[in-house]
Design a protein that fits this description.
This protein is α+β, with helices and mostly antiparallel strands and 336 residues long. The protein is built from 3 helices and 4 strands, in the order H-H-H-E-E-E-E. The protein has a 4-stranded antiparallel sheet, with no helix packed on it. Keywords: Acetylation, Coiled coil.
């Protein structure tokens, strides 16, 4: 009975340890899956960040190229404007020179010379008129060209400012996205570190549990071996035996003595019962003897694994009043 209970307790304890072990294994596997998921998430975020960096570099390169082309066009237009100004100055100087040259002389020597000078002056005046017309035409052309260049410059400058503001806004937006992505990556990395630490802790706990389980299993095996050794030393268990008393007159004259032998150890308790018949005490007039208790065995020791004791219990004889040999006792006469 005790052996079965101890075996059931050992099996129940082993089942509990197996359940704990399986739970820890499942938790460790779940943490491994979470770790792999987080690693894949971090890799994807790193890819997104790299892509955003490349796009940012491409946009910045485009903006630099557009700015350089705009500066180049502005320099070309400025050079054209400077050339137009220099040409205008040259035309003004030539016009002044021709106007001075075409002035009428103060002293006129004679009529022939006057006529020659008059015709010459007319030709010069015609040439001056032509030059003035060309100058005005060139001036108007240059003014229209200058106005067109200024309008184009203004348009290009507005386009450049709009593009610059747009690119600045996009860059700020991308910077914010990169910052948020870096924060998320940092949080994910911190979470991964925490999960790694908890995983390591669970591994250490699992190793402790495994060592504890192995130690408990060794203890259980040792206890089972001790139980088997004790059972081998004690031998097969004996069932209590009780001898029936004889019927008839002898049962009335004789009592019974039951001997109970108890042997205890750390795992089981065995008992032996033997029935004996003591002889009737005729000298006492058939009176029943008193109950006797006799104990034999070694001294009681709490640390010992086996104890043996023999108890003898004497059962009083059956009353001898109503049988064939019973006689009424004679009473002595009372003294007067």
């Amino acid at each position: 009975m005790t052996k079965g209970k101890s075996h059931e307790k050992a099996s129940a304890r082993e089942n509990n340890w197996h359940k704990i072990f399986n739970t820890l294994v499942e938790l460790s596997q779940k943490l491994q899956k979470d770790k792999k998921f987080l690693e894949n998430r971090i890799k994807s975020l790193h890819g997104v960040i790299c892509k955003m960096k490349v796009e940012y570099e491409v946009e910045s390169t485009k903006s630099d190229l557009f700015l350089a082309s705009s500066e180049k066009e502005a320099a070309i237009y400025k050079h054209r404007y400077d050339n137009a100004d220099s040409q205008l100055v040259d035309l003004r100087q030539s016009f002044d020179y021709l106007s001075q040259k075409c002035e009428e002389p103060k002293n006129i020597p004679d009529d022939a010379s006057n006529k020659a000078e008059g015709s010459r002056n007319k030709s010069l005046q015609n040439e001056v008129r032509k030059l003035k017309a060309e100058i005005e035409k060139c001036k108007s052309d240059k003014n229209t060209e200058i106005l067109a260049l200024l309008a184009e410059k203004k348009f290009i400058w507005n386009q450049f400012e709009n593009m610059e503001s747009k690119l600045t806004y996009d860059i700020k937006k991308k910077d914010d996205k990169v910052k948020r992505a870096n924060e998320k990556v940092q949080l994910v990395l911190n979470r991964a570190d925490e999960l790694q630490a908890s995983n390591e802790k669970l591994r250490t706990d699992l190793a402790k549990v495994e060592s504890e389980s192995a130690r408990k299993n060794e203890e259980i095996i040792g206890l089972l071996k001790q139980i088997e050794n004790l059972n081998a030393k004690v031998g097969p268990t004996e069932t209590p035996s009780l001898r029936s008393c004889r019927g008839g007159r002898s049962s009335a004259n004789e009592g019974g003595v039951i001997k109970v032998k108890k042997e205890t150890n750390s795992s089981q308790t065995f008992g032996k019962m033997v029935h004996t018949k003591p002889s009737a005490h005729k000298s006492t007039g058939g009176k029943a003897p008193r109950k006797q208790l006799t104990t034999k065995g070694s001294s009681s020791n709490s640390s010992s694994s086996k104890r043996k004791a023999v108890e003898v219990i004497t059962i009083p004889d059956s009353p001898k009043l109503f049988n064939s040999t019973f006689k009424v006792p004679k009473l002595k006469p009372s003294a007067t």
